[in-house]
Amino acid sequence: MRLGFLFNHDQIHQVAHSLPIAMALAESGFDGEIVVATTTRRLAREVTRLGAPLVGTRIEHASLPLSRSSARLAQLLNPLAPAAKVLVYRDNLDFFRSLDVLVVAEKTSLVLRRKYGLTRPLLIHTRHGAGDRAIGFNRQSAGFDHVLCSGTKIRERLMRDAGVPGDAISVVGYPKFDIAHPSVQLLAKTANRPVVLYNPHPSPHLSSWYRHGREVLDFFVDNDDYQLIFAPHVMLFERNFVVSIDRLRVDRPGRLDARYLRSPNIHIDLGSRACSDMSYTRAADIYLGDVSSQIYEFLYAPRPCLFLNSHALPWRNDANFEHWNAGPVIERPSLLAAGLKQALDGHAADYLSVQQAMRARSFDISEVPSSQRAAQAILEFMQRRGLIARAAARRAA
Protein backbone atom coordinates (compact mmCIF):
# COMPACT_ATOMS: atom_id res chain seq x y z
CA MET A 1 0.00 0.00 0.00
CA ARG A 2 1.38 3.38 -1.03
CA LEU A 3 0.28 6.60 0.66
CA GLY A 4 1.40 9.96 -0.75
CA PHE A 5 1.51 13.50 0.66
CA LEU A 6 1.83 16.25 -1.94
CA PHE A 7 3.24 19.75 -1.44
CA ASN A 8 2.72 21.80 -4.58
CA HIS A 9 2.87 25.56 -4.06
CA ASP A 10 5.13 28.58 -4.51
CA GLN A 11 5.48 29.08 -0.76
CA ILE A 12 5.91 26.80 2.26
CA HIS A 13 2.84 27.80 4.28
CA GLN A 14 0.87 24.58 3.60
CA VAL A 15 3.60 22.16 4.68
CA ALA A 16 2.93 22.28 8.43
CA HIS A 17 -0.75 21.49 7.89
CA SER A 18 -0.22 17.95 6.61
CA LEU A 19 3.42 16.90 7.00
CA PRO A 20 2.84 16.23 10.74
CA ILE A 21 0.25 13.62 9.71
CA ALA A 22 2.79 11.78 7.55
CA MET A 23 5.20 11.86 10.47
CA ALA A 24 2.58 10.52 12.88
CA LEU A 25 1.76 7.69 10.47
CA ALA A 26 5.44 6.79 10.18
CA GLU A 27 5.88 6.80 13.95
CA SER A 28 2.77 4.65 14.39
CA GLY A 29 4.34 1.76 12.50
CA PHE A 30 2.09 2.13 9.44
CA ASP A 31 2.52 -1.04 7.39
CA GLY A 32 2.96 0.53 3.99
CA GLU A 33 4.96 3.06 2.00
CA ILE A 34 4.73 6.76 2.87
CA VAL A 35 5.89 9.14 0.15
CA VAL A 36 6.19 12.90 0.52
CA ALA A 37 6.32 14.62 -2.88
CA THR A 38 7.51 18.19 -3.43
CA THR A 39 7.54 20.31 -6.57
CA THR A 40 10.12 23.00 -5.72
CA ARG A 41 13.48 23.20 -3.98
CA ARG A 42 11.98 25.55 -1.42
CA LEU A 43 9.34 22.99 -0.48
CA ALA A 44 11.90 20.18 -0.44
CA ARG A 45 14.07 22.08 2.02
CA GLU A 46 11.14 22.79 4.32
CA VAL A 47 9.88 19.21 4.24
CA THR A 48 13.37 17.92 4.99
CA ARG A 49 13.84 20.43 7.81
CA LEU A 50 10.50 19.80 9.52
CA GLY A 51 10.41 16.07 8.81
CA ALA A 52 13.90 15.16 10.01
CA PRO A 53 14.90 12.44 10.75
CA LEU A 54 11.88 10.59 9.33
CA VAL A 55 12.01 12.07 5.82
CA GLY A 56 14.60 10.09 3.93
CA THR A 57 14.35 7.09 6.26
CA ARG A 58 10.84 5.96 7.21
CA ILE A 59 9.30 8.46 4.79
CA GLU A 60 10.38 8.49 1.14
CA HIS A 61 10.93 11.91 -0.45
CA ALA A 62 10.12 12.33 -4.15
CA SER A 63 10.76 15.47 -6.22
CA LEU A 64 8.26 15.89 -9.06
CA PRO A 65 9.83 17.52 -12.15
CA LEU A 66 8.36 19.43 -15.06
CA SER A 67 9.02 18.39 -18.64
CA ARG A 68 11.11 20.78 -20.74
CA SER A 69 8.09 22.13 -22.57
CA SER A 70 6.16 22.62 -19.32
CA ALA A 71 9.14 24.36 -17.71
CA ARG A 72 9.36 26.81 -20.64
CA LEU A 73 5.62 27.51 -20.48
CA ALA A 74 5.73 27.96 -16.71
CA GLN A 75 8.60 30.42 -17.03
CA LEU A 76 6.44 32.56 -19.31
CA LEU A 77 3.24 32.36 -17.26
CA ASN A 78 4.40 32.12 -13.64
CA PRO A 79 4.87 35.90 -13.14
CA LEU A 80 1.08 36.19 -13.43
CA ALA A 81 -0.38 32.76 -12.67
CA PRO A 82 0.83 29.51 -11.01
CA ALA A 83 1.25 27.56 -14.24
CA ALA A 84 3.87 25.18 -12.84
CA LYS A 85 1.50 24.21 -10.05
CA VAL A 86 -1.00 22.89 -12.62
CA LEU A 87 1.39 21.47 -15.23
CA VAL A 88 3.17 19.26 -12.70
CA TYR A 89 0.17 16.92 -12.58
CA ARG A 90 0.21 16.23 -16.32
CA ASP A 91 3.95 15.56 -16.24
CA ASN A 92 3.81 13.11 -13.33
CA LEU A 93 0.70 11.02 -13.93
CA ASP A 94 2.62 7.76 -13.52
CA PHE A 95 3.70 8.83 -10.04
CA PHE A 96 0.14 9.64 -9.01
CA ARG A 97 -1.16 6.36 -10.46
CA SER A 98 1.34 4.53 -8.24
CA LEU A 99 -0.43 5.77 -5.09
CA ASP A 100 -3.40 4.22 -3.33
CA VAL A 101 -4.16 7.43 -1.42
CA LEU A 102 -3.01 11.02 -1.93
CA VAL A 103 -3.22 13.51 0.96
CA VAL A 104 -3.19 17.21 0.02
CA ALA A 105 -3.71 20.56 1.71
CA GLU A 106 -5.10 22.31 -1.39
CA LYS A 107 -7.69 21.65 -4.10
CA THR A 108 -5.70 21.88 -7.33
CA SER A 109 -5.06 18.14 -7.09
CA LEU A 110 -8.68 17.50 -8.10
CA VAL A 111 -7.40 17.99 -11.66
CA LEU A 112 -6.15 14.39 -11.46
CA ARG A 113 -9.72 13.20 -11.38
CA ARG A 114 -11.54 15.85 -13.39
CA LYS A 115 -9.10 16.42 -16.25
CA TYR A 116 -7.04 13.22 -16.36
CA GLY A 117 -9.70 10.75 -15.26
CA LEU A 118 -7.67 9.01 -12.56
CA THR A 119 -9.77 6.82 -10.26
CA ARG A 120 -6.66 6.02 -8.27
CA PRO A 121 -5.41 7.42 -5.90
CA LEU A 122 -8.23 8.20 -3.51
CA LEU A 123 -7.99 11.84 -2.42
CA ILE A 124 -7.93 13.15 1.16
CA HIS A 125 -8.05 16.88 1.84
CA THR A 126 -6.43 18.22 5.03
CA ARG A 127 -7.27 21.88 4.33
CA HIS A 128 -4.82 24.55 5.49
CA GLY A 129 -6.15 26.86 8.15
CA ALA A 130 -9.39 27.39 10.02
CA GLY A 131 -10.55 30.52 8.22
CA ASP A 132 -13.99 31.66 7.14
CA ARG A 133 -13.57 32.68 3.49
CA ALA A 134 -16.22 31.31 1.14
CA ILE A 135 -13.64 29.68 -1.14
CA GLY A 136 -12.80 27.28 1.67
CA PHE A 137 -16.33 25.89 1.53
CA ASN A 138 -17.07 25.77 -2.18
CA ARG A 139 -18.31 22.69 -4.00
CA GLN A 140 -14.79 21.53 -4.81
CA SER A 141 -14.51 20.25 -1.24
CA ALA A 142 -17.08 17.59 -2.11
CA GLY A 143 -14.75 16.27 -4.81
CA PHE A 144 -12.52 14.59 -2.23
CA ASP A 145 -13.08 11.11 -0.87
CA HIS A 146 -12.49 12.33 2.68
CA VAL A 147 -11.85 15.67 4.39
CA LEU A 148 -9.98 16.30 7.64
CA CYS A 149 -10.88 19.49 9.48
CA SER A 150 -9.92 21.32 12.65
CA GLY A 151 -13.24 21.86 14.43
CA THR A 152 -17.02 21.72 14.46
CA LYS A 153 -17.38 25.10 12.73
CA ILE A 154 -15.54 23.79 9.68
CA ARG A 155 -17.46 20.51 9.64
CA GLU A 156 -20.82 22.27 9.79
CA ARG A 157 -19.97 24.62 6.92
CA LEU A 158 -18.54 21.83 4.78
CA MET A 159 -21.81 19.98 5.12
CA ARG A 160 -24.05 23.03 4.68
CA ASP A 161 -22.20 25.05 2.03
CA ALA A 162 -20.05 22.51 0.18
CA GLY A 163 -22.37 19.51 0.32
CA VAL A 164 -19.78 17.19 1.86
CA PRO A 165 -21.50 14.21 3.55
CA GLY A 166 -20.98 14.07 7.29
CA ASP A 167 -19.45 10.59 7.13
CA ALA A 168 -16.80 11.92 4.72
CA ILE A 169 -15.48 14.39 7.31
CA SER A 170 -13.26 13.77 10.33
CA VAL A 171 -12.69 16.44 12.98
CA VAL A 172 -9.07 15.96 14.04
CA GLY A 173 -7.85 19.25 15.50
CA TYR A 174 -4.99 21.28 14.05
CA PRO A 175 -1.85 19.26 13.20
CA LYS A 176 0.16 22.44 12.64
CA PHE A 177 0.05 23.11 16.37
CA ASP A 178 2.05 19.90 16.92
CA ILE A 179 5.18 21.19 15.16
CA ALA A 180 4.87 24.99 14.97
CA HIS A 181 7.90 26.42 16.74
CA PRO A 182 8.65 30.15 16.35
CA SER A 183 11.90 30.67 14.44
CA VAL A 184 12.59 34.30 15.31
CA GLN A 185 12.91 36.28 18.50
CA LEU A 186 11.78 39.87 18.17
CA LEU A 187 13.09 42.84 20.08
CA ALA A 188 12.10 42.93 23.71
CA LYS A 189 8.62 44.31 24.18
CA THR A 190 7.82 47.11 26.59
CA ALA A 191 4.56 47.65 28.45
CA ASN A 192 4.07 51.04 26.81
CA ARG A 193 4.63 49.84 23.23
CA PRO A 194 2.14 47.14 22.22
CA VAL A 195 3.17 44.97 19.26
CA VAL A 196 0.67 45.05 16.40
CA LEU A 197 0.70 42.37 13.69
CA TYR A 198 -0.63 43.69 10.36
CA ASN A 199 -1.48 40.62 8.28
CA PRO A 200 -3.36 41.54 5.07
CA HIS A 201 -4.58 38.86 2.68
CA PRO A 202 -3.62 38.83 -1.04
CA SER A 203 -7.12 38.50 -2.58
CA PRO A 204 -7.79 41.85 -4.31
CA HIS A 205 -11.54 41.85 -3.66
CA LEU A 206 -11.12 41.30 0.09
CA SER A 207 -7.67 42.54 1.11
CA SER A 208 -7.06 45.85 2.85
CA TRP A 209 -3.60 46.18 1.31
CA TYR A 210 -4.29 47.56 -2.16
CA ARG A 211 -6.59 50.37 -1.02
CA HIS A 212 -5.32 51.18 2.46
CA GLY A 213 -2.11 49.27 3.20
CA ARG A 214 0.34 52.11 2.79
CA GLU A 215 -1.83 54.40 4.90
CA VAL A 216 -1.68 51.75 7.62
CA LEU A 217 2.12 51.74 7.45
CA ASP A 218 2.12 55.56 7.45
CA PHE A 219 0.16 55.52 10.69
CA PHE A 220 2.75 53.39 12.44
CA VAL A 221 5.67 55.40 11.06
CA ASP A 222 4.06 58.42 12.73
CA ASN A 223 3.04 56.60 15.93
CA ASP A 224 6.07 54.99 17.51
CA ASP A 225 4.17 54.26 20.70
CA TYR A 226 3.31 51.03 18.85
CA GLN A 227 5.66 48.44 17.41
CA LEU A 228 4.46 46.99 14.11
CA ILE A 229 5.12 43.62 12.54
CA PHE A 230 4.15 43.85 8.88
CA ALA A 231 3.89 40.18 7.87
CA PRO A 232 1.25 39.82 5.15
CA HIS A 233 0.05 36.54 3.70
CA VAL A 234 3.11 35.01 2.05
CA MET A 235 1.51 35.16 -1.41
CA LEU A 236 0.84 38.92 -1.37
CA PHE A 237 4.31 39.88 -2.63
CA GLU A 238 5.23 36.57 -4.29
CA ARG A 239 4.38 37.87 -7.79
CA ASN A 240 4.13 41.25 -9.49
CA PHE A 241 0.40 40.68 -9.91
CA VAL A 242 -2.12 38.92 -7.67
CA VAL A 243 -5.03 37.10 -9.29
CA SER A 244 -7.98 35.93 -7.20
CA ILE A 245 -9.80 32.86 -8.48
CA ASP A 246 -12.92 32.90 -6.31
CA ARG A 247 -13.89 36.27 -7.83
CA LEU A 248 -11.77 37.14 -10.84
CA ARG A 249 -9.74 40.21 -9.93
CA VAL A 250 -6.18 41.28 -10.65
CA ASP A 251 -4.14 43.82 -8.72
CA ARG A 252 -0.53 44.79 -8.04
CA PRO A 253 0.93 44.76 -4.53
CA GLY A 254 3.54 47.30 -5.62
CA ARG A 255 6.75 48.22 -3.80
CA LEU A 256 7.42 49.37 -0.27
CA ASP A 257 8.81 52.85 0.27
CA ALA A 258 12.22 52.95 1.91
CA ARG A 259 10.90 54.96 4.83
CA TYR A 260 8.90 51.94 6.00
CA LEU A 261 12.03 49.83 5.89
CA ARG A 262 13.97 52.46 7.87
CA SER A 263 11.34 53.02 10.55
CA PRO A 264 12.79 51.68 13.86
CA ASN A 265 9.40 50.57 15.20
CA ILE A 266 8.43 48.55 12.09
CA HIS A 267 9.57 44.98 11.40
CA ILE A 268 8.83 43.88 7.81
CA ASP A 269 8.77 40.27 6.63
CA LEU A 270 7.25 39.49 3.22
CA GLY A 271 7.68 35.74 3.19
CA SER A 272 10.28 34.13 5.42
CA ARG A 273 9.68 30.95 7.39
CA ALA A 274 8.60 33.10 10.34
CA CYS A 275 5.48 34.12 8.40
CA SER A 276 4.31 30.50 8.44
CA ASP A 277 5.51 29.04 11.75
CA MET A 278 3.41 31.24 14.05
CA SER A 279 6.40 33.38 15.12
CA TYR A 280 4.38 36.54 14.60
CA THR A 281 0.94 35.37 15.67
CA ARG A 282 2.50 34.33 18.99
CA ALA A 283 4.62 37.46 19.44
CA ALA A 284 1.99 40.15 18.80
CA ASP A 285 -0.25 41.83 21.35
CA ILE A 286 -2.82 43.01 18.78
CA TYR A 287 -3.92 41.52 15.46
CA LEU A 288 -4.75 43.92 12.61
CA GLY A 289 -6.03 42.32 9.43
CA ASP A 290 -8.85 41.53 7.06
CA VAL A 291 -9.65 37.94 5.98
CA SER A 292 -6.49 35.85 6.50
CA SER A 293 -7.07 32.57 8.34
CA GLN A 294 -4.05 33.43 10.50
CA ILE A 295 -6.50 35.28 12.74
CA TYR A 296 -7.49 31.91 14.18
CA GLU A 297 -3.89 30.93 14.89
CA PHE A 298 -3.59 34.27 16.70
CA LEU A 299 -6.81 33.60 18.63
CA TYR A 300 -5.51 30.32 20.00
CA ALA A 301 -4.30 32.67 22.75
CA PRO A 302 -7.11 35.28 22.78
CA ARG A 303 -5.89 38.88 22.52
CA PRO A 304 -7.16 42.19 21.12
CA CYS A 305 -8.02 42.33 17.41
CA LEU A 306 -8.93 45.06 14.93
CA PHE A 307 -10.25 44.50 11.40
CA LEU A 308 -10.05 46.77 8.37
CA ASN A 309 -13.08 46.52 6.07
CA SER A 310 -11.56 48.40 3.14
CA HIS A 311 -14.34 47.43 0.74
CA ALA A 312 -17.22 48.48 3.01
CA LEU A 313 -18.62 44.97 2.83
CA PRO A 314 -21.94 44.16 4.57
CA TRP A 315 -20.29 41.64 6.86
CA ARG A 316 -22.62 41.27 9.82
CA ASN A 317 -24.33 37.86 10.10
CA ASP A 318 -22.18 36.61 7.21
CA ALA A 319 -20.37 33.36 8.04
CA ASN A 320 -17.55 34.36 5.68
CA PHE A 321 -16.64 37.15 8.11
CA GLU A 322 -17.37 35.43 11.41
CA HIS A 323 -13.89 36.32 12.67
CA TRP A 324 -14.75 40.03 12.49
CA ASN A 325 -16.82 39.51 15.63
CA ALA A 326 -13.53 39.12 17.53
CA GLY A 327 -12.82 42.84 17.63
CA PRO A 328 -13.82 46.28 16.33
CA VAL A 329 -14.19 46.75 12.57
CA ILE A 330 -13.19 50.01 10.86
CA GLU A 331 -13.51 51.06 7.21
CA ARG A 332 -10.62 53.51 6.81
CA PRO A 333 -7.13 54.03 8.26
CA SER A 334 -8.05 57.41 9.73
CA LEU A 335 -9.87 55.40 12.42
CA LEU A 336 -6.83 53.34 13.38
CA ALA A 337 -5.99 55.27 16.54
CA ALA A 338 -9.53 55.01 17.90
CA GLY A 339 -9.88 51.42 16.72
CA LEU A 340 -6.68 50.24 18.41
CA LYS A 341 -7.70 51.95 21.64
CA GLN A 342 -11.13 50.32 21.49
CA ALA A 343 -9.59 46.91 20.78
CA LEU A 344 -7.31 47.21 23.81
CA ASP A 345 -9.71 48.84 26.26
CA GLY A 346 -12.74 46.73 25.36
CA HIS A 347 -11.08 43.36 24.95
CA ALA A 348 -11.85 41.81 28.33
CA ALA A 349 -15.43 43.06 28.56
CA ASP A 350 -16.56 42.93 24.92
CA TYR A 351 -14.51 40.38 23.01
CA LEU A 352 -12.70 37.85 25.21
CA SER A 353 -15.65 35.49 25.67
CA VAL A 354 -16.50 35.78 21.96
CA GLN A 355 -12.94 34.84 21.03
CA GLN A 356 -12.91 31.89 23.40
CA ALA A 357 -16.12 30.55 21.84
CA MET A 358 -14.70 31.04 18.34
CA ARG A 359 -11.53 29.20 19.30
CA ALA A 360 -13.50 26.26 20.71
CA ARG A 361 -15.56 25.90 17.51
CA SER A 362 -12.54 26.30 15.25
CA PHE A 363 -10.10 23.96 17.03
CA ASP A 364 -11.13 20.64 18.55
CA ILE A 365 -8.01 20.10 20.63
CA SER A 366 -7.62 17.10 22.94
CA GLU A 367 -4.90 15.34 24.91
CA VAL A 368 -4.14 13.26 21.82
CA PRO A 369 -2.01 15.30 19.36
CA SER A 370 -3.95 16.42 16.31
CA SER A 371 -1.50 14.79 13.92
CA GLN A 372 -2.07 11.42 15.60
CA ARG A 373 -5.84 11.87 15.39
CA ALA A 374 -5.54 12.73 11.70
CA ALA A 375 -3.32 9.69 11.09
CA GLN A 376 -5.88 7.48 12.79
CA ALA A 377 -8.69 9.00 10.70
CA ILE A 378 -6.76 8.18 7.52
CA LEU A 379 -6.18 4.60 8.66
CA GLU A 380 -9.87 4.20 9.43
CA PHE A 381 -10.78 5.63 6.02
CA MET A 382 -8.46 3.15 4.29
CA GLN A 383 -9.90 0.33 6.38
CA ARG A 384 -13.46 1.26 5.32
CA ARG A 385 -12.41 1.39 1.67
CA GLY A 386 -10.84 -2.06 1.90
CA LEU A 387 -7.31 -0.84 1.10
CA ILE A 388 -5.74 -2.36 4.20
CA ALA A 389 -7.41 -5.73 3.69
CA ARG A 390 -6.35 -5.84 0.02
CA ALA A 391 -2.77 -4.96 0.92
CA ALA A 392 -2.71 -7.73 3.53
CA ALA A 393 -4.08 -10.20 0.97
CA ARG A 394 -1.38 -9.26 -1.55
CA ARG A 395 1.33 -9.80 1.05
CA ALA A 396 -0.13 -13.17 2.04
CA ALA A 397 -0.22 -14.27 -1.61
What keyword list fits this structure?
397 residues; alpha/beta; 6-stranded parallel beta sheet; 16 helices; 15% strand
Poorly predicted segments = none
Shape: globular
Tally of helical runs: 16
State the secondary-structure class.
alpha/beta
Name the strands of the widest sheet in spatial order: 3-2-1-4-5-6-7
First-last Cα distance: 14 Å
Strand content: 5-15%
Largest sheet: 7 strands, parallel
Q: How many E-type strands?
A: 15
Please state the average pLDDT score.
95
Q: Considering DSSP H and I runs of 4 or more, what fraction of the residues is helical? A: 25-40%
- Please give the radius of gyration in angstroms: 21 Å
Topology overview:
Elements: E1 2-7, H1 15-27, E2 33-38, H2 41-51, E3 60-63, H3 68-77, H4 83-90, H5 93-97, E4 101-104, H6 111-114, E5 122-125, E6 146-149, H7 152-161, E7 169-171, H8 176-179, E8 195-199, H9 209-221, E9 227-230, E10 242-244, E11 249-251, H10 258-262, E12 266-268, H11 279-283, E13 286-289, H12 294-298, E14 305-308, E15 329-330, H13 336-345, H14 347-362, H15 370-384, H16 387-396
Parallel strand pairs: 1-2, 1-4, 2-3, 4-5, 5-6, 6-7, 8-9, 8-13, 9-12, 13-14, 14-15
Antiparallel strand pairs: 10-11
Helix pairs in contact: 1-2, 1-15, 3-4, 13-14
Structure report:
By secondary structure, the protein is α/β, with parallel strands linked by helices. Helix content is 36%, strand content 15%. It contains 16 helices and 15 strands. Helix 1 packs across helix 15, helix 3 (68-77) packs antiparallel against helix 4 (83-90) and helix 13 (336-345) crosses helix 14. The protein is globular, with a radius of gyration of 21 Å. The two termini are 14 Å apart.
